[in-house]
C-alpha cells in the first residue's frame, strides 16, 4: 500500500498532503509512492531523515543553504522519461541531452549545499562525469547544443557550410547532410557514454526526490506544530493530540482546538459522549496520526508513543469509498466484515469504528455492537469504538468525553458557540450508560419547542417501559 | 523602412494581422532581414492558438522563418524537431502546449524554423519577461486579433498591424474596415487617478460615481447585462468593463436615455469585439469610449494579394489607406 492509495479515501490525509510544501514533481511523485511502513526500523529511518532536515530548518545558521536547496529543487524538471530512455539504451535527442545536462548541473548545486549542511542521511551522487560529457566547452551553463568541440570533422563541415552563405547549391546540401550525419553519430556516442552513468543519474533522481519530500515533511512539521513520534511496542500513548486540519479551521474562527490525552492498549476501548462532543473527530485524528507515523511523517500531538500496526481499518463517514450507493446498513456491514476478516488473518491492527450498527433498530443494533466488542476483546485488537448505546455488556475500557456544561444563564446556543460550553477532555467512565444530552442540545440549538416537549414525554415513557424497575 | 528604426526602441513588439494571409509572416521576415547584422539582439516567438503549422483557413503550410545566428527563438517541441538550423537549447518549459513543451533556443548556424508558441497570453508575457535573462533587446511576437491577442498593450509594448486583400478585395471596404480598427487602436486614454485601481480589476463590470468611488455592478460580464439593466446606471454613467465589449453591450447602452453622458471604459483595444455599425451608432449618439492602456502602433503594412490570387493595385491601396488614416502605410510585397 502506498500513500497515493490512501489520499482519495481520507480527507485528513489529503489535507496534509496539500499542505506539504513540495517543490518539484520528483518530490511529489516520491510522496505519492511512499509505502505504508510496518517495521519499526524502516519508520525510524524515515523519521531520522525528517528530523535531520527539521533541525536544519530550525537553525538560522543554515538558512542560506536551505533556501538555496529549496530554490534549486523548484527548478528540477520531471526528466524521468528521459532517464528511462537512457536506461533502455535509446539514443538521446538534443532536448533529452539538454534535460540531463541541466539536471546534472542542478544536482551538483544541491550536492554542494548538502555538504555545507554536513547532511548525514541524504547524498546526491557525483555527476561530474555526466556534466563533462555534455559540456565539451566547459561553460558550466545549462545550455545544450551538439557543439563543434565534439568533433573536428563537424567543426570543419560547419565552417564550410557557413562559408557558402546559405546558398541553395548541391554542395551546400551535401555539407548540410554531412553535418547532420556527424551530429547523429555524436549523439549515438554521447548516449552510449551517458548510459554507463545511468545508475548514478537514477540515484541522483531518487536522492533529489527524497530530499524534496523530506524537506517538505520537515517544513510541514514546523508549520503545523507536529512532533517526532516515538515507536512503542505495546501501548500507544498521545499527549496533546490534535487534528491539524480542524485546528486550522478553528484558529481561523478564533477558536481553540481542545487537544486530548489518550492511551490505547491492545484491547477495545469504548468512547461515549454527548452529540457534538467530538467523538468522530477523535477517531479521525487517531487514524490520521497512525497513517502519518507509518508514512514517515511527524505527528499531530505534543508527545506521542505509537505502536506500528500491519493494518488500519476504519469505519466512519469521512471515507470516500466505493460503498456509496449501497444502503447505509449494507455499507456498514461490508465495512465490518472487512474488519473481521482481517482480524481473523491474525494481523496486528488498529480498528476505529464510529457508532457500529447505528443504522438499524436499537435492539438488534445494540446486540451487534456487543458482539463486535466481544470479538475485538477476544482477539486483543487495539480499537476505539464510539457509541450512543447504553447497555454495552462488555467489561472493556470505557472513556467518556465530558461534554456540555452550560451555565444556567444561557438559554440558547448556536452551532458556532456550542464549542465554548463543551468540555472535550476524556475521562474514565465506569457505568455502561451513555450520556443522554441529545434532547437538551437539540433544544439549545433551537429545535421547535413543541417537538422538544413531545420528545421529552416519549423519552420518559421509554424509560419506564424499558426499565420498569428504576 | 523607417518603421524598423522605431521598432527597435521597444522591448516587445507584436505583429498582428487583421486576417489570415495579410502578410504577417512577410512583415516578420522583413524586420528580421533589416536587423540582420545590426547587432540588435532579437527574440522571436508566436502565439500558438490555432495549432499553426498548417494555416487552418487556407490549409497551406505556414511558412518557415529564416533566422540568423544569435537570434533567440521560442517554438514548440514538435516544430523544434523539424528545424533546419543549428540551435543551442537554453530552456525547456515544464508546461505543455498541444504541440509539446516550449523550447527556447539560440541560433548557432542560420537556417529556417517553424514558429509556434505559448497557448495563452499570460504564458507569453512570462516568456517575454524571461528574455531579459538572455540580454535580448526586442522580442517579436507573431500573433492574430483574437481573445488571446498579443497585441494587447498589457502583453507587448508596441504593435505592427498588417492588413490586405485577405480582409477584403474591395479597396473601399478594406480601407474602411482597417480605419475602424485604427480608430479603436487610437481610442483615448482615460486620464483619471482611478485608472490604476481599475487595471487591477480583471473581472466584472464596475461603475464610477460622481465622487470618484468605484462600485462593482452585479454582472459577471457584458454578456449577462440584459438580465437587470436598471442596475447599470445606479452609480453613474462611467462604466468599466474588464472583459469583452460586444456589439450587444454597445446597442444596449445606446438605447438608454442617458447615452449622451455615458462613458465606457475598456482595458485596451483588444477587448473591443463590437462591429463597426454598433460602434458608430454608440458614438454618434454621444457615447464615449476610453481605454486604460493605449496601444502604440508602429506601422501599418498592407498586402495587396489575396489568398485566392486576387491582386489589388498597390499604389492605389496605399494612397487611399494613407489618405484616410493619415499615417504612413507600407507595402512590403512591392518595395
Description of the molecule:
- The complex is a heterodimer of chains A (470) and B (335).
- With 470 residues, chain A is an alpha/beta fold.
- Helix content of chain A is 52%, strand content 11%.
- Chain A has 18 helices and ten strands.
- Chain A has helices at residues 3-6, 11-19, 25-32, 40-58, 63-75, 80-87, 94-117, 128-134, 152-163, 170-195, 198-224, 244-252, 279-294, 328-344, 362-378, 418-421, 438-444, 449-466, and strands at 230-231, 236-241, 260-264, 268-273, 303-306, 311-315, 349-354, 382-386, 397-404, 422-428.
- The model of chain A is unreliable at 466-470 (pLDDT under 50).
- Chain B is globular and about 65 Å long.
- Chain B is of the alpha/beta class.
- In chain B, strands 1, 2, 3, 4, 5, 6, 7, 8, 14 and 15 form a ten-stranded mixed beta sheet that branches. Chain B has a five-stranded mixed beta sheet with strand order 10-9-11-12-13, with no helix packed on it.
- Chain B has nine helices and 15 strands.
Return the structural class of chain B. alpha/beta
| Total separate domains of chain B | 2
Query: What is the general shape of chain B?
Result: globular
Structural class of chain A: alpha/beta
What is the CATH class name of the largest domain in chain B? Answer: Alpha Beta
Spell out the helices and strands of chain A N to C. HHHHHHHHHHHEEHEEHEEHEHEEHEHH
CATH topology (level 3) name of the largest domain in chain A: MutS, DNA mismatch repair protein, Chain A, domain 3
Question: How large is the radius of gyration of chain B?
Answer: 21 Å
Q: What is the assembly state of the chains in this entry?
A: heterodimer
Number of continuous helical runs of chain B: 9
Task: Indicate the low-confidence ranges of chain B by residue numbers.
Answer: none
Give the beta-strand count of chain B: 15
Number of domains of chain A: 3
Amino acid at each position: 500500500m502506498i500513500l497515493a492509495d490512501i489520499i482519495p479515501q481520507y480527507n485528513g490525509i489529503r489535507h496534509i498532503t496539500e499542505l506539504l510544501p513540495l517543490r518539484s514533481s520528483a518530490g511529489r511523485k516520491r510522496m505519492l509512492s511512499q509505502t505504508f511502513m510496518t517495521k519499526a526500523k524502516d519508520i525510524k529511518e524515515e523519521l531520522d531523515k525528517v528530523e535531520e532536515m527539521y533541525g536544519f530548518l530550525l537553525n538560522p545558521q543554515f538558512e542560506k543553504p536551505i533556501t538555496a536547496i529549496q530554490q534549486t529543487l523548484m527548478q528540477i524538471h520531471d526528466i524521468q522519461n528521459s532517464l528511462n530512455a537512457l536506461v533502455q539504451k535509446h539514443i538521446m535527442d538534443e532536448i533529452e541531452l539538454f534535460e540531463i545536462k541541466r539536471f546534472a548541473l542542478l544536482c551538483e548545486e544541491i550536492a554542494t549545499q548538502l555538504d555545507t549542511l554536513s547532511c548525514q542521511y541524504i547524498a546526491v551522487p557525483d555527476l561530474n562525469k555526466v556534466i563533462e560529457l555534455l559540456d565539451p566547452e566547459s561553460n558550466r551553463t545549462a545550455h545544450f547544443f551538439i557543439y563543434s568541440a565534439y568533433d573536428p570533422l563537424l567543426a570543419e563541415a560547419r565552417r564550410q557550410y557557413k562559408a557558402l552563405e546559405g546558398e541553395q547549391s548541391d554542395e551546400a546540401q551535401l555539407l548540410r547532410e554531412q553535418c547532420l550525419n556527424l551530429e547523429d553519430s555524436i549523439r549515438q556516442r554521447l548516449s552510449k557514454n551517458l548510459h554507463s552513468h545511468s545508475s548514478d543519474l537514477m540515484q541522483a533522481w531518487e536522492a533529489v526526490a527524497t530530499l524534496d519530500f523530506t524537506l517538505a515533511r520537515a517544513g510541514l512539521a514546523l508549520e503545523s506544530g507536529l512532533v517526532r513520534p516515538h515507536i512503542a511496542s505495546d501501548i500507544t500513548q498521545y499527549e496533546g493530540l490534535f487534528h491539524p486540519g480542524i485546528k486550522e479551521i478553528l484558529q481561523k474562527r478564533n477558536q481553540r482546538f481542545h487537544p486530548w490525552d489518550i492511551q490505547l492498549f491492545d484491547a477495545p476501548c469504548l468512547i461515549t459522549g454527548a452529540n457534538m462532543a467530538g467523538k468522530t473527530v477523535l477517531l479521525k485524528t487517531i487514524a490520521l496520526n497512525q497513517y502519518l507515523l507509518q508514512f514517515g511523517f511527524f505527528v499531530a500531538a505534543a508527545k506521542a508513543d505509537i505502536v506500528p500496526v500491519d493494518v488500519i481499518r476504519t469505519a466512519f463517514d469521512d471515507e470516500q469509498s466505493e460503498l456509496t450507493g449501497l444502503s447505509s446498513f449494507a455499507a456498514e456491514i461490508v465495512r465490518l466484515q472487512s474488519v473481521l476478516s482481517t482480524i481473523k488473518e491474525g494481523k496486528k491492527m488498529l480498528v476505529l469504528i464510529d457508532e457500529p450498527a447505528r443504522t438499524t433498530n436499537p435492539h438488534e443494533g445494540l446486540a451487534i455492537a456487543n458482539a463486535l466488542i466481544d470479538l475485538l476483546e477476544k482477539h486483543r485488537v487495539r480499537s476505539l469504538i464510539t457509541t450512543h448505546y447504553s447497555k454495552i455488556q462488555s467489561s472493556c475500557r470505557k472513556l467518556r468525553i465530558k461534554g456540555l456544561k452550560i451555565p444556567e444563564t444561557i438559554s440558547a446556543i448556536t452551532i458556532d458557540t456550542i464549542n465554548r460550553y463543551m468540555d472535550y477532555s476524556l475521562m474514565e467512565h465506569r457505568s455502561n450508560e451513555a450520556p443522554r444530552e441529545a434532547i437538551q442540545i437539540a433544544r439549545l440549538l433551537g429545535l421547535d419547542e413543541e417537538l422538544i416537549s413531545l420528545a421529552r414525554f416519549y423519552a420518559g415513557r421509554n424509560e419506564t417501559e424499558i426499565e420498569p424497575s428504576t | 523602412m523607417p518603421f524598423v528604426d522605431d521598432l527597435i526602441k521597444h522591448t516587445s513588439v507584436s505583429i498582428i494581422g487583421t486576417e489570415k494571409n495579410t502578410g504577417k509572416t512577410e512583415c516578420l521576415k522583413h524586420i528580421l532581414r533589416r536587423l540582420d547584422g545590426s547587432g540588435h539582439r532579437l527574440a522571436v516567438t508566436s502565439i500558438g492558438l490555432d495549432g499553426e503549422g498548417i494555416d487552418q483557413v487556407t490549409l497551406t503550410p505556414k511558412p518557415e522563418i529564416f533566422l540568423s545566428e544569435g537570434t533567440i527563438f521560442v517554438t514548440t517541441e514538435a516544430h523544434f524537431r523539424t528545424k533546419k538550423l543549428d540551435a543551442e537549447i537554453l530552456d525547456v518549459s515544464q508546461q505543455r502546449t498541444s504541440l509539446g513543451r516550449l523550447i527556447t533556443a539560440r541560433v548557432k548556424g542560420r537556417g529556417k524554423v517553424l514558429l509556434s508558441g505559448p497557448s495563452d497570453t499570460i504564458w507569453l508575457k512570462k516568456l517575454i519577461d524571461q528574455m531579459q535573462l538572455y540580454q535580448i533587446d526586442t522580442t517579436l511576437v507573431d500573433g492574430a486579433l483574437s481573445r488571446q491577442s498579443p497585441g494587447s498593450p498589457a502583453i507587448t509594448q508596441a504593435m505592427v498591424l498588417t492588413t490586405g486583400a485577405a480582409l477584403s478585395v474591395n479597396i473601399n471596404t478594406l480601407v474602411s474596415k482597417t480605419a475602424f480598427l485604427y480608430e479603436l487602436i487610437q481610442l483615448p486614454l482615460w486620464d483619471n487617478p482611478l485608472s490604476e485601481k481599475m487595471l487591477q480589476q480583471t473581472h466584472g463590470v464596475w461603475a464610477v460615481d460622481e465622487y470618484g468611488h468605484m462600485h462593482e455592478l452585479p454582472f459577471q460580464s457584458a454578456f449577462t447585462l440584459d438580465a437587470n439593466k436598471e442596475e447599470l446606471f445606479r452609480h453613474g454613467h462611467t462604466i468599466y468593463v474588464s472583459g469583452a465589449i460586444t456589439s450587444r453591450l454597445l446597442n444596449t447602452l445606446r438605447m438608454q436615455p442617458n447615452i449622451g453622458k455615458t462613458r465606457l471604459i475598456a482595458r485596451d483595444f483588444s477587448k473591443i469585439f463590437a462591429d463597426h455599425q454598433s460602434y458608430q451608432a454608440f458614438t454618434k449618439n454621444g457615447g464615449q469610449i476610453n481605454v486604460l492602456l493605449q496601444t502604440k502602433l508602429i506601422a501599418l503594412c498592407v498586402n495587396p494579394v489575396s489568398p485566392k490570387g486576387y491582386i489589388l493595385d498597390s499604389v492605389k491601396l496605399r494612397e487611399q489607406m494613407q489618405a484616410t488614416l493619415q499615417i504612413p502605410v507600407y507595402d512590403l510585397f512591392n518595395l
